[in-house]
Amino acid sequence: MPHGVAHQLIASHLVDGEMTPGEEIALRIDQTLTQDATGTLVMQELEALGLDRVQTEVSVQYVDHNLLQADEKNAEDHAYLRSAARRFGLWYSQPGNGVSHPTHMQRFGAPGRTMIGSDSHTPACGSLGMLAIGVGGLEVAMAIAGQPLSIRMPEIWGVELTGELPPWCSAKDVVLEMLRRHGTKGGTNRIIEYHGAGLAGLTAMDRHVVANMGAELGATTTVFPADEEVRRFLAAEGREDDYTELLAEDGTEYDVTEHIELSELEPLIAQPGSPADVVPVREVAGTPVGQVVIGSSANPGLRDFAIAARMVDGRQTHPGVSFDVNPTSRPILVDLTRWGGTTSLIAAGARIHQSGCLGCIGMGQAPAPGTNSLRTMPRNFPGRSGAGKDDRVWLCSPETAAASALRGEITDPRALADELDLTWGDLDLPAPTVIPGMIEEPPPPEEAQREELVKGPNISGLPELDPFPDAFEVPVLLAVGDDISTDDISPAGADALPYRSNIPALARFAFTRIDPDYPENAEKIKDSTGHAIVGGENYGQGSSREHAAICPRYLGLRVVVAASFARIHWQNLANFGILALEFTGESDRDAVGQGSTLSFADLHDQLTGGDEVVGRVDGTEFTFRHRLSERQVRMVLDGGLIRQLAEGNA
Q1: Mean pLDDT for the chain overall
Q2: How far is Cα 94 from Cα 625, in angstroms, rounded to an integer?
Q3: What residue stretches are annotated with the Aconitase/3-isopropylmalate dehydratase large subunit alpha/beta/alpha domain (predicted)?
């Protein structure tokens, strides 16, 4: 049977298991990516594992999220991360170098390789014909130590692209169209594989935009073929020797299919609250705008900044708009400046910020209350901007963002182009700049052995976790709705994230957007009963940060019962010894509220005996379902993977 790109990538790295959708498989991992918001825990986990030296082909530690140094905490973490990278043999990308995903794509990405990263947007490197998957930090630590990645074999979702994008539409509109059609759960347990004649009009960095936001669809990852366009991209970066052609074989059949005719697309925008609440820009045109932010891993390419610069060149953005530009990397800022775009942006009123994630993760650029903020970023969950849960963040393309910055209201770029006679098309961009030595190479093993880990007072150790009890009775401290994100569980932003390597301190922020009293209430009973949380559909969507599992676990969380779980958070719960159960009856969720009591008996036998668990809610018997493999069941019962390894039970 002919195979597509995703199937070929999996088959060439398969260590164990059968490639049947839903079955657990194990994959050899070639590369890893960590960033500073999640990498500090990964480095602490490498310490706990007693690692001597990385076992992957390439592992890179980036500092791109927590760049604001309002006090000493972020600087402490950066020093720790550099020392840990040197000690264990990782490459190190210092603050200001750039956002991890496009930087990795430019410097290390290679067709045919597998990569996992402790960041949910790791699939962006699928743009090069890689199998790049976002996972929890503990799984990255295990891969760095030479262990395979265990996941459930996804379905392969073939999306055929035909035609060409019309003027004033770009790659962002392609993925927004997918979100409009399928929502944030459409890609769950699927790999999205793009194919078709329409790929000819998408550059490698355009494909990065689409692959990056496959995470918002809930997909395991997104892959593109390694074709002539990928070869051109790598050649321009001085890495043509890393190119290997990887194409779908003729006659490939996919588990699920979809088709997009690119010529029929129009400018799209996601309304506040969800990346999936997508409408045509023309339907919301005229809505007042107070902030426009261009940049992030979801629109990282030189072209994305250049089109905005061309549109505002010789004009002034609206005086009521804060026009913020986050360059993606040092090389891209250099190239934008060589081309003249930086001057155009500054003259038009732009505020140029340092290269990094920044506003995307709520580390600065928080909009004013009630202000509509248009961003070229991947997520707009309530509160993620750092402005509180009532922020109003819209997601759009650079074309729509720049047009709206000029007019001070949401503006269809096609309408503005007609009014101002703007041109769209070839920007005649310069060849990419390669900065030698920008990313620090790991020292040789004998030097690495002498490296001392630099730990400031804000860096704690991993908390000790106990084994999972056979029976317990716990109160439900929180009952939440659908689409609870990891930002809701463990907030991002300038207040919380500086404590990312200090679990006791970070735990004080857990769920405070939903219930400010949750940490205090959980702390009171964590050593006596512990507690449970009840959720709806797609519990734990969004970021891969494992803090959203380990902080509630530190506060005594034993079990989460939900209608369904997002993939990465579900795995993170198991990694730290939290039982994830699903309701089996349609009305069961309504019977369990905040203040209910959950009780279970003979859990060890129940979990090892099948996928159903019988428990009681306020004395009434209920049947729940778990989706854990035998390996994961053992891990939960042992109290999580770190404790399992420490006890020699893995």
Answers
A1: 95
A2: 44
A3: 11-408
Q: Do the beta carbons of residue 606 and residue 591 sit within 8 Å?
A: no
> What is the per-residue pLDDT for 633?
97
User: Distance of CA 133 to CAs 115, 426, 466, Å?
Assistant: 6, 33, 30
- Cα separation, 501 vs 510, in Å, equals 14
Copy the structure tokens of residue 129: 């014909």
Encoded tokens for 261: 């005719």
How far is Cα 364 from Cα 493, in angstroms, rounded to an integer? Answer: 8
Give the span between the Cα atoms of 641 and 135, in whole angstroms.
14
| Torsion-angle region of 260 (φ positive above 0: left; ψ -120 to 50: alpha; else: beta) | beta
Nearest CA among 138, 79, 121, 128 for reference residue 235: 128
H or E segment and range at residue 373: strand 372-375
Give the pTM. Answer: 0.94
3-state secondary structure (DSSP) of residue 158: strand
Upper half-sphere CA count for residue 303 (Cβ side, 13 Å): 21
DSSP 231-252: HHHHHHTT-GGG---B-PPTT-
Residue 509, both tokens: 């922020």
Closest-CA residue to 566 (of 491, 479, 483): 483
Q: Which one, of 341, 357, 345, 268, lies nearest residue 302 by Cα?
A: 341
The continuous run of DSSP H or E covering 137 comes out as helix 137-144
Query: What tokens were used for 234?
Result: 């790598």
What DSSP assignment string belongs to 24-36? EEEE---EEEEEH
Side-chain half-sphere exposure of 456, counting CA atoms within 13 A: 19
Dihedral of the alpha carbons of 192, 206, 329, 398, in degrees to the nearest 10? -110
Q: What would the pLDDT profile of 113-124 be if each residue is shown by its tens digit?
A: 999 999 999 999
DSSP annotation of 502 reads -
φ/ψ of residue 40, rounded to 5 = -60, -40
What gap in Å lies between CA 66 and CA 356, rounded to an integer?
A: 9
3-state secondary structure at position 267: coil
Instruction: Determine the pLDDT at residue 265.
Output: 98
Segment holding 208, helix H or strand E: helix 204-212
Residue 476 to residue 530: CA distance in whole angstroms? 10
Start-end of H helices in 340-483? 341-347, 398-407, 413-420, 445-448
Which residues of the chain fall short of a pLDDT of 70?
649-650
**Can you read off the two tokens belonging to residue 582?**
């699903």
Sign, CA torsion 118/123/128/130: positive
Please report the pLDDT score of residue 650 as a whole number: 65
Query: Quick one: which H or E segment has residue 42?
Result: helix 36-49
What is the DSSP code string of 4-29?
Answer: -HHHHHHHHHEEES---TTSEEEE--
Query: What SS3 class is residue 472?
Result: strand
**Cβ burial, residue 515 (10 Å; 0-12/13-18/19+):** middle
Q: What pLDDT does 336 receive?
A: 97
pLDDT attached to residue 455: 93
pLDDT at 388: 80
**φ/ψ (deg, to 5) at 26:** -125, 135
Give residues with Cβ within 8 angstroms of 235, minimum separation 6: 243
**Do 514 and 488 meet the contact criterion of CB atoms below 8 Å apart?**
yes
List Cα–Cα distances, 519 to 386, 463, 508, in angstroms: 20, 16, 5
Strands (E), 564-633: 579-583, 597-600, 612-617, 620-625
Residues in the chain: 650
Map 549-579 to HEC letters.
HHHHHHCCEEEEEECCECHHHHHHHHHCCCE
